[in-house]
Specification:
The protein is α/β, with parallel strands linked by helices. It has a single domain, classed as Alpha-Beta Barrel (TIM Barrel). Helix content is 30%, strand content 18%. The strands form four sheets. It has a five-stranded antiparallel β-sheet with strand order 1-12-13-14-15, covered by helices on one side. It has a five-stranded parallel β-sheet with strand order 5-6-9-10-11, with helices on both faces. Strands 2-3-4 form a three-stranded parallel β-sheet, with helices on both faces. The structure holds zinc ion.
Length: 400
C-alpha cells in the first residue's frame, strides 16, 4: 500500500530505505500486446519466464495474446492463464481471448460468456479478422459491455513475403510485403468501425499512412485507438542487413523515411499506446533463410529504454511518453488508470534514467533470445518493482 507521497517522511525503524536520488518512480507499465506462448509453445516462453521478463522491464500489467496451442477462446482457457499467472505472483495478466473460435476466423466466440470471466478485450492476433461481417458483429457485441476488438491489420493475399517490399528486399533477393498489406486492411477496418459504436483497436501499425487513415477526418465517428511498437520507431529495414532474421517481424521493419515519420507521429500525439508485441521464438525457429524464419522479436525488457531513447531524442516530454506506456493502454483495455497516490496498492517502478549497460542474453529473463537489441548499449534501467510488495530489485526476484 502507498501510505503517503510527500517529502520529509520518516520511515519506521524496520523499513527498507532505498535512495532514489536522481531516479524516477512511476506506476508499473502496461504492455497490451504480449505473446506468452503457454500452452503449446513452452520451448519459446512460459507464463513464468515471460512475466519475469515483464517485471524486469518495469511492466506490471500484461495483455496476453491468444494465439497459443490450443488458442485461448473459452472461459476455461482464460482461467488456466489466470491460474498460471497467480502461481508466479508476478505481473498482472489481462487475458485477451480470441474473436473467433479456435482463431479460425469462421465463427465468433461467445463474447458475453467470456466477458463474465472478467475479460473485455478480444483479438485474433497473428491474423486479421478477415470476415468483415463477423468483425462488424463483434464490434456491436463488445459495445454492450464497453469492450474492445483488437485487430492485427493485414491483407493476407498481399502479405506473402518475409520483409518490407523495397530496396532491402531487392538486395536480399527475398519476396517483399508491400505497405498495402497493412494500409488496405486499416482502411477496411475504419469503414467497418464507422458503422458501429463498438471500440476497435488497431495494433502494431508500422506505416505513417496507416496512422493517417486511422486519424482521417472522414472516420471521425468511429471509436478507434491505435498502438505502435518500439521496434518500428527505432529500426528500419536496414537492420536486416546487420541482424538477419533477428530483425524479421510482421509487420516488417519499413524504410528509414517511414520509420522517422512514424516516430514523429507518435511525438505529435496521434498514437494512443506503445506495446512491445513481445514474440518469443526458440532459436531454431529463427534460424535458416529469411523465408523460413519465424516472424517476431522479444520486447518486454527493451520496451522502456528503446521507447525513451527514440522519443526523448525527439524532445517528447517524459510524462507524455510514460502515458503511452501506462494510462494510454490501460484505458484501451478498460483498466483503472495507473497512478501513485496514497491509499492505492503499490504498483510502481524505480528507474535509473542514466544507467547505461549492454543488453545481453545473460541479462535477459525471457526464455528466447530473438532480438536485434542484444549487445546494444541501452540507457535506463529498472532498479526495483513493487506489486503490493517489493518483487524485484537489482536484477533479483524477491521470494514470495
Ligand atoms: Zn499481430
Amino acid at each position: 500500500m502507498i501510505e503517503a507521497v510527500q517529502s520529509g517522511l520518516h520511515p519506521q525503524l524496520d523499513a527498507i530505505e532505498i535512495d532514489g536520488t536522481g531516479k524516477w518512480i512511476f506506476p508499473g507499465l502496461v504492455d497490451m500486446h504480449v505473446h506468452l506462448r503457454e500452452p503449446g509453445g513452452e520451448e519459446s516462453e512460459t507464463v513464468e519466464t515471460g512475466l519475469k521478463a515483464a517485471i524486469a522491464g518495469g511492466i506490471t500489467t500484461v495483455g496476453v495474446m491468444p494465439n497459443t496451442s490450443p488458442p485461448m477462446d473459452s472461459p476455461e482457457s482464460v482461467l488456466n492463464l489466470r491460474q498460471a499467472a497467480a502461481r508466479c505472483g508476478l505481473a498482472n495478466v489481462v487475458p485477451v481471448p480470441c474473436v473467433t473460435r479456435g482463431r479460425s476466423g469462421r465463427e465468433p466466440v461467445n463474447f458475453l460468456e467470456l466477458h463474465e470471466t472478467g475479460v473485455s478485450a478480444f483479438t485474433d492476433d497473428g491474423d486479421p479478422v478477415h470476415d468483415s461481417g463477423l468483425l462488424l458483429d463483434a464490434l456491436d457485441a463488445v459495445y454492450g459491455f464497453d469492450g474492445v476488438i483488437i485487430e492485427h491489420p493485414e491483407v493476407t493475399d498481399l502479405a506473402g513475403g518475409s520483409v518490407n517490399r523495397g530496396a532491402v528486399s531487392m538486395k536480399l533477393g527475398v519476396r517483399g510485403i508491400p505497405g498495402a498489406a497493412e494500409t488496405a486492411d486499416v482502411a477496411r477496418c475504419m469503414e467497418i468501425a464507422s458503422n458501429s459504436k463498438g471500440h476497435l483497436h488497431l495494433t502494431h501499425l508500422s506505416l505513417p499512412r496507416s496512422i493517417e487513415l486511422a486519424r482521417a477526418e472522414c472516420f471521425h465517428s468511429a471509436h478507434v485507438t491505435i498502438d505502435v511498437t518500439p521496434h518500428h520507431i527505432a529500426l528500419c529495414e536496414d537492420a536486416l542487413m546487420e541482424h538477419g532474421t533477428m530483425a524479421k517481424m510482421n509487420p516488417p521493419l519499413r524504410s528509414s523515411r517511414q520509420r522517422k515519420n512514424l516516430a514523429e507521429m507518435v511525438k505529435s500525439g496521434m498514437v494512443d499506446a506503445i506495446a512491445s508485441d513481445h514474440a518469443p521464438h526458440a532459436l531454431h525457429k529463427k534460424e535458416g533463410s529469411f523465408e523460413d524464419a519465424a516472424f517476431g522479436i522479444i520486447g518486454l525488457e527493451t520496451l522502456l529504454p528503446i521507447t525513451l531513447e527514440i522519443l526523448i531524442g525527439l524532445q517528447m516530454p517524459v510524462a507524455r511518453i510514460l502515458h503511452l506506456l501506462t494510462g494510454g493502454p490501460a484505458r484501451i483495455l478498460g483498466l483503472p488508470v495507473p497512478g501513485l497516490t496514497a491509499g492505492r496498492k503499490a504498483d510502481c517502478v524505480l528507474f535509473d534514467p542514466e544507467a547505461e549497460y549492454l543488453f545481453s542474453e545473460k541479462g535477459s529473463f525471457s526464455k528466447s533470445v530473438n532480438t536485434p537489441f542484444f549487445e546494444q548499449k541501452l540507457k535506463g534501467r529498472v532498479e526495483a518493482v513493487w506489486m503490493g510488495r517489493l518483487v524485484y530489485r537489482d536484477g533479483e526476484f524477491a521470494r514470495t
